[in-house]
Amino acid sequence: MPSFFPFTPGQESRARFQPESSPLLGRFRAVPPSTARRPSHGALGLLVVDVWWSRYGVLVVLPAVLAIGWCALPFPQYPLLDDGDGNDHHGGDGVPSDAPTRKIPGHGQPRVRVNFWFFLFIYYNFYNLTALIWITKVFNLYSLNWWPQSLGFLPTVSLIATLALVLPIPIYLSPETRFLTVHNTSWIAWTFIVMAAPVAIAFLILTTLNWWPQSLGFLPTVSLIATLALVLPIPIYLTPETRFLTLHNTSWIAWTFIVMAAPVAIAFLILTTSQRHHLGLRNRMSDTQRIFTTSWWTGGDLGGGNQQGRRGRQTQQRQHQQPLLARLRARWLPASFVRFVWFCLALLVGLMAYVIGEAYAEIYLRTLPHDNLETIMYVYSWVVTVHLLDLLTGWLLGIREGERVGSYPLSWIFKLYFMLTYQTYVRALYARLRSPQQFVLLQILSSSFLILLTPLTMSPLWHRVSRALNFTDQSYASYQKVCTRNVFIRFLAENVSMAAFLGSVLVLHFGPNKDVYPYFAFDFDDDDSERYDFKLTFWASSVTWACELAASLCLRLLIRWCYGVDVGREGRLDLAVWPELLPTSVAVMLHVLQNMLFSIIRLQFQLQ
């Protein structure tokens, strides 16, 4: 494999061995080769993790500051024009001519025009690169390089990032399709598609000798996908009949999702049309490749074409005794393929969580104002939805040997992803609460559930009931470890989401991008009953943050007193045993925070 990620099979010499209290990552792990010169970043990572202020500085402060700085980049802004180009009420970007001149803050209609090229190459480019970094770090935890060896990591990422910027240009330049570019969802969907490109490339590399069509070649194929991703949105923008699509965030999100799925679709087509002859394993595989094959787990050999050399007489007898379907599956679906499919399904569920969150937010904002009961119903319906998706992803990944993907670090990161997704949308809701009573009610419910239910779910009785109902088959020590990890992850998600929310409220309310983010403008008419006040939002959110810190401290003390477990120590040990968790956590936090901020920007582009 490339020197960028030089992993070879080895022993778990650096990991702490706790067979009962810690879930297993798998039977074998890919670990760096032992060399005389150890990488300096490993020692630096241990120092960062060991000290509490540096640990939380990297995991909480750094992602929040990056997200706030990103949304604070000043946009070149232009005033809205009435029939400025003769096409519509606001100058041709697809806004209906009968749109009201007074915009309700809850709906956040555009107030100014922004420069499309600044948005594409500066604002969106950083958002897109963060998504690619996040998906790459997830593959690092999976111990698989998604980029082709012949091209390398940096050229592949640069090519995908370039295509992600180029393909929307024709959609913007076309009056018929320009409307797509003003919808946040279009851009988010396009980002999803770009994020799916590494998954598709890895799928192709894993299942084929070359993932691109042999008749076309690698560089032309990648260049074609990247060019299409940027070019296709241009005619949509330039076409007056379809330009309105560019005004919707959903259109951009959907386009991003399509681009990300393109490599997966190509890989699947190549896999199915080639009749999977390459999975016959006629050539000898390396030890690293054998980790991802069925023979590694069954003890078989994947040598050359000599059948007797590859299998002993006992293995042949066992295979002849197996049903035909099982033998065909063992031949045509090696463990690498099955494990990677589970991994891709987990990624799909994770991406869908954001789309569902966008739908929840859209419904809530379109039905403002809400009373206390409606607010509680909205929040906890979202909480239930996120936890169900989290449970599904946790089952798809697994954390122990023999389970689907069987990766504890991946389950750690996805737990953080879902917890932070849930927290960011709740924070965004704070900007539309109209009274201190609503803040108090939400906080009382949240803290009560946290302090009372969490220790209860960690009890041996709860574990026995869960085992009896087949909700888990873990030992109590492993189950308790996972519960403690979840408390640590919740602490990180609560703090980074609140820090980013308060910082973005300050920057966007008083900064130059106030009109680009009307959601945080907090403007209202004198006779308007829907008063969303900046002071109420900021100070009530700050008090809520203090209450959450106090509740978290009480919970940690209660867990230590009842079960003798230090939540902070367990989280620190996880970060030390799996060093990749630290940079991956920063990447996923920044990506989720950007998702929240990107969903509330209001796009209206100035025609150049």
TrEMBL record:
UniProt keyword Transport, yes or no: no
Keywords of the record: Membrane, Transmembrane, Transmembrane helix
Iron-sulfur as UniProt keyword: no
Membrane-spanning segments: 56-75, 116-139, 151-173, 185-206, 218-240, 252-272, 337-357, 377-398, 410-428, 440-462, 487-510, 536-559
Protein name: Uncharacterized protein
Stretch list, region Disordered: 86-106
PANTHER family attached to this UniProt entry: PTHR40467, PTHR40467:SF1
